[in-house]
Design brief:
Helix content: 55-70%
Order of helices and strands: HHHH
Radius of gyration: 29 Å
Length: 104
């Protein structure tokens, strides 16, 4: 709710309409705001900014999950020795790194 954010900001910064309100005055102002929102039909409506924020959080979580799945399934190992999975073009074969004798 934008009203609650504005009240909190006023209280935290010591400026604005609500900076010097007592607890009793805040409760009365909150009750008045609630009653006005009920009359206007906006009490149970989702704030568009809150909805957009929820969508962005969901997208971030999905991207993080996809990234975690990519890193745990082998992906490109950034040039490190890779003997399994990943990109076959850059895959190092086991015989290339396995020592069989004291020869070059």
């Amino acid at each position: 709710m934008q009203w609650v954010r504005r009240v909190k900001q006023d209280m935290n910064t010591g400026s604005g309409e609500y900076k010097n309100f007592t607890a009793q005055q805040l409760l009365l102002a909150a009750r008045k705001q609630y009653n006005n929102m009920i009359k206007s039909g906006s009490w149970d409506k989702v704030d568009p900014l809150d909805a957009q924020f929820a969508v962005m959080v969901t997208q971030i979580q999905q991207l993080q999950a996809a990234q975690a799945a990519h890193t745990t399934t082998g992906g490109n190992n950034s040039g490190r020795n890779n003997t399994g999975g990943g990109n076959k073009k850059y895959q190092v074969k086991e015989w290339m790194v396995k020592k069989t004798a004291d020869q070059i």
